[in-house]
Amino acid sequence: MIQPVRTVAMRDVFGATLLALAERVPGMVVLDCDVATSCKTRAFGEAYPDRFFNCGVAEANMVDVAAGLATCGLRPVVSTFALFLTLKGADQIRNTVCYNDLPVVFVGGYAGLSDSFDGPSHQAITDLAVMRAMPNMVVVVPGDALEVQQAVEAALSRPGPTYIRVCRNPTPVLFEDQPPLEIGRVRKLRDGADLTLGVCGVPTSMAIEASEKLAQEGIGVDLLEISTLKPLDVNAILASVSKTGKLLSIEEHNRYGGLAEAVALALAKERPTKMDYVAIEDTFAESGSYEALMAKYGLSVDRIVEKAKALVTSCGPNAGESL
Amino acid sequence: MTMEIDTYRRLDPSTVLAETDRTKKAAAMQYLAQQFRVQVLDILHEKGTGHWGGAASAAELLVALYFDTLRARPDQPDWPERDRLVVSKGHASCMIYTVLAHRGYFPVEELNTFRQLDSRLQGHPCMNSTPGVEMSTGALGHGMSVTLGMALAARFRKQDWWSYVLLGDGDLNEGQTWEAIMAAAKFAPPRLAALIDYNKVQLDGPSDEIMPMDPLDEKLRAFNWNVAPKYFDGHSVVDILDSFDWIRRQDRWPVAVIYRTHKGRGVSFMEDNYVWHGSPVDDATHAKARPELLKTLGELEANL
Description:
- Chain A contains 14 helices and 14 strands.
- Chain A is an alpha/beta fold.
- The radius of gyration of chain B is 18 Å and the shape is globular.
- The interface between A and B is medium-sized, with 29 and 32 residues.
């Protein structure tokens, strides 16, 4: 079992990653919207002022400036709060970047409920739905800070656009000394025959803990960290549900348009599978501490365990093999 | 109809390109723009779809850019050092395609596929479909930002290509354009020029009724742009060439030139009339409009 020994903020690692990649990726330029201090692109901007463009509070313009830079062979990394990037910049992401399949890396910071005290006006619970809906877009939801670094590196070597979701707060480091994140590949965290848990992002640590609790109660969990929502690693998910026959998805996002729907869409075609989901129940949250918000709006170890047991009870164990 | 098409003289674009006498070249480009208007009208009529108003408005500007000013290699559209032109008013697509085809980016015959299934010529320009299209446009308001990015890339890479954007009235309605105008003044990369096809008519009516933008030059100056001291005549190639001379003399960036133009230019009942933003050119309209264009073409021929 993965037992995290430290917590690190994804945004801090994102900022450090930009500095670390600066010499290796000489065409990399960074754009931010007056939140460079928050999203941690500031240090890069101070070290490489000719490669940094603070565009002010104007997301639409920032995205299209990045697109223009990309058409001339540069590798823009566009950073701001996930909510504003994916909604205020949505037309530009769609019509300029995705339509033309330009290699722009979008890093949506303060994602999910992590801008907790700022309240619903700042909390990104629809970003994955919007980004998944864009043709050509690759959508990555790292599970820890190390995966943020790996996702940024991988995205910078892709030929098209990538969206990477980044949390504001310190979260457990889960994948120390593990192989790096691969875009489009599921990371298998645990083998079990009774139930598949599919998780992305910050709740990954919760899913790990919940799997242990379930094991203690005799429920074997096949635990998949599905860090790439698009393109989905359908084969890995199929292999798992063909064994377990049921899947519980877990995500820090509204229940519409995120991981649950991505998995359900794939399984509906390939192998209809009994599912349930842990997600935000189509509501806006509120101000409060991150931990308290997660618990109140449905994302906790207890909630995962409860839903997992209900799903197993409703299907019976090993439903996959009985099909 | 086929007979009619063959009744006017088409200039050989390579001859126009090669002309070294400025007066003769201006006259040839003036003719070429009108010649392209006839072809655009024919295409829009045949296909029953597309935008006449904005296409006719931009004819002389596009011809002057592609046949005089832009450093371009039609046989190598992605030549890294080329000048960039982003036509933000993408609904002028039929004119853009006509100019690009005659400039040698793709076969002129392909213009007949405009807006049809499996064509490279999408309803609005698509950079990955059509050789020579620098940026996909159509949704208004994007071009200024994208062109700023191209100019910033030139500065960063220590290249001297020019980055031009052609903006229409609708672009100037979009908030994003003003975000970009602010940002362009902040970053001020060299050789960034906004060319404004200011025909003052929009889809729903005159700009003064839909969204007044005057005093446009003063607005741009207030945003710290270097704005040409007068409005140029966007239908006079001589005037347009003068404006390009003015641009090349500048050393304070970004620069903007406002061209007074007329939507639907060339057909009396279509000029300055919002109805002809995008109405289909039916048989009766075509029959009435085409002789007007040809009459002017004949007058321009005398100057060649």
